[in-house]
User: Which sequence fits this backbone?
């Protein structure tokens, strides 16, 4: 039996992702976690000497599909800005042989945004109408793609400081994501009266103070490789109902949770629910009497599940 894995390029992964229902694959994954049919260890952080960067390794097992996988992602410090890449290795639990080595850039973008979409569908009020998006990169655009059909949004407002220097054509590529999308001139304008605020940045520091919002809203946040990266102030967790992608691993990696626990007395036990619990009906939807915060760090299982789906389509 050949031990050489099938190597999938970024372009091949992008093409195949268009053939699969990414949010539905992730919903099944989280239900499998709830049912004990999947294993998600904590992510592993390997720091380079002299602050030169790090590797984050995300692992996971899908018992039903008999696959094990690991995504490894370096954050390499450079004068011109950090270099971040990612590759996912898929291995058979039947033969012990490698099946797939996939450039994970497209997987990372898709699973990050689709996980947020699954959370928005589970946590946002059914009557939510105003969506705010902070960020304009590939991950932010993917968020819009996966979330735009989840509610009857009346407005989609997007803000990113970098857009002010973009050309008219580049700005048009953003507004072309959906007819309802408009580019806001400021963060305050973007989040004004928002029902859902999606933070889709690569910032290592807080970009939104929840107190600036005029009414209770669902706030979603993602991760970057920067140590202890966070998009909301750590002290704000005590004033919100907190949910996450997976309570067994997220509090040990999410920057604002680590800092809040160390400096502000916040406890991981105050997390109300995670996606496995939400999708299996173990916890109820929030009533949004105050802000709801959803934090995703990205699970190895998400990459493994998508890589496995693409591997099945490779021919």
Assistant:
């Amino acid at each position: 039996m050949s031990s050489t894995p099938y190597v999938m390029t970024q372009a091949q992964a992008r093409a195949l992702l268009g053939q699969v229902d990414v949010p539905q694959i992730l919903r099944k994954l989280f239900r499998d976690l709830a049912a004990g049919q999947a294993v998600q260890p904590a992510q592993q952080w390997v720091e380079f000497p002299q602050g030169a960067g790090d590797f984050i390794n995300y692992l996971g097992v899908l018992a039903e599909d008999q696959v094990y996988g690991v995504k490894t992602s370096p954050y390499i410090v450079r004068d011109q800005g950090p270099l971040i890449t990612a590759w996912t290795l898929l291995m058979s639990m039947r033969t012990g042989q490698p099946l797939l080595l996939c450039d994970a850039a497209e997987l990372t973008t898709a699973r990050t945004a689709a996980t947020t979409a699954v959370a928005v569908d589970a946590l946002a009020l059914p009557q939510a109408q105003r969506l705010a998006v902070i960020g304009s990169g590939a991950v932010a655009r993917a968020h819009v793609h996966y979330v735009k059909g989840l509610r009857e949004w009346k407005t989609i407002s997007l803000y990113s400081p970098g857009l002010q220097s973009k050309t008219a054509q580049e700005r048009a590529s953003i507004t072309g994501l959906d007819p309802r999308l408009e580019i806001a001139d400021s963060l305050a304008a973007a989040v004004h009266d928002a029902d859902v605020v999606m933070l889709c940045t690569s910032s290592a520091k807080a970009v939104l103070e929840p107190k600036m919002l005029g009414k209770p809203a669902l706030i979603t946040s993602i991760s970057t490789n920067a140590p202890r990266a966070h998009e909301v102030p750590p002290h704000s967790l005590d004033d919100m109902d907190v949910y996450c992608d997976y309570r067994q691993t997220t509090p040990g990696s999410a920057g604002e949770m680590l800092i809040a626990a160390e400096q502000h007395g916040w406890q991981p036990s105050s997390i109300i629910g995670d996606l496995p619990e939400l999708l299996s009906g173990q916890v109820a939807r929030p009533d949004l009497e105050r802000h709801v915060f959803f934090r995703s760090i990205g699970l190895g299982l998400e990459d493994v599940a998508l890589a496995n789906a693409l591997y099945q389509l490779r021919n």
Notes: The chain has a mean pLDDT of 94. Residues 164 and 185 are 8 Å apart (CA to CA).
